[in-house]
Known about the structure:
Layout: H1 40-66, H2 71-79, H3 97-110, H4 112-132, H5 135-146, E1 152-155, E2 171-175, E3 178-189, E4 196-203, E5 214-220, E6 226-230, E7 242-253, H6 264-299, E8 301-302, E9 305-306, H7 311-339, H8 345-369, H9 381-393, H10 398-410
Helix pairs in contact: 1-3, 3-4, 3-6, 4-5, 4-6, 6-7, 6-8, 6-9, 7-8, 8-9, 8-10
Amino acid sequence: MPETTPSSPRSGLPGDRADAYTVTERLGTDYYAVFADVEGDDLDVWRRAQSFIDEVGPRMSDAWDAATYPLDVVARFGELDLFTDGIDHPALTRLSPLAAGLVNMEVSRGDGSLGTVLAVQGGLALRTLALFGSPAQQERWLEPLARAEVLGSFALTEPDHGSDSVALETVARRDGDEWVISGAKKWIGNGASGGITFVWARVDDETDDLHGAVRCFVVEQDTPGYTGTVITGKASLRGIHQAHIALDDVRVPLDAVLPGTKSFKDASTVLYSTRSGVAWSALGHATACYEAALSYAQQRTQFGKPLAKFQMVQERLAQMLEELTAMQLYCRHLADLEAAGGLRPTQASLAKYHNTRAARRIAQTARDLLGGNGILLENGVMQHMADIEAIHTYEGTESVQALLIGRDITGMGAFA
């Protein structure tokens, strides 16, 4: 068998003198001082997120490479009380919209899989329960979800219904003192991790006033008929398990339905709330890529001088900084609008639309600037580039965001 070659062997042979490059360290890029005034509780939680990433970063790099899901890291996430995602509930620690955004940004800057853990556990599952759950449901599950003592998932997307999830086919019918749920879900983070799943299904009961309406049901994953199968072969977000779920006549008690859910608009409310988080997450990924490119350009020597001394390289760095600064401004104003109670759903859509597109461009430029070293996982950029592809799609694809924004500015819907 041929010997494998480490990325920086430093054998002492001619042409083999390069040391490993230090490109993943945090540089604190903030050219317009967008976050220079962060203080108090917001600053404390931001620093806590940074410390968490510094603590678990190496573990997550290995997990991404091996496509494993380190649940002890998720538990640590909960111990640090970082899952509440700006949700306003008396049983939860209240983070301001700015603090919640900074946590999203910092976690995704360190690892995209953990950014998705935050989006699933806090942004989707915990928020669904906090907004729509009964007092009894909240008493049982809210704090365990916030502490990651129980993992939560949000099951809306189906194998045949992604962007058109309003057309979901999973159904729930009444049978005596139980609901019977049948259907399938796909791409469900934490859906095979042994916790609980918030299943969105259409009521199929002509005697029910909400017949045909979409409602949400809390389902424990060890319930007979529930099968969650981990999706393998992913080239993105490899450090979190996502599941294909089969619901084969799953029986749950009547009080498993979340009473606050009456229509698909309730699912949309949750998605609108998490859309801001995706914009912040994209900013975290883009920051990591830009800072890796800047550090590499200062360290890598070609043609007798650092890359950073070449005009073309400086122009590329300036282009990346231009887009990164715009992303920061989007996110900061988004947080300010939300704090003032004036954030509209389509404003969150515009931020997500802009930031994931910009993050893709920054990642592509950074990868190219690093040359062959750009495809090495140890340098971070390629992993972020792959993970950006997932966040560009989830919580509403680029096309869906464009249609939502287009309908808002023209007053005319263009959905098929």
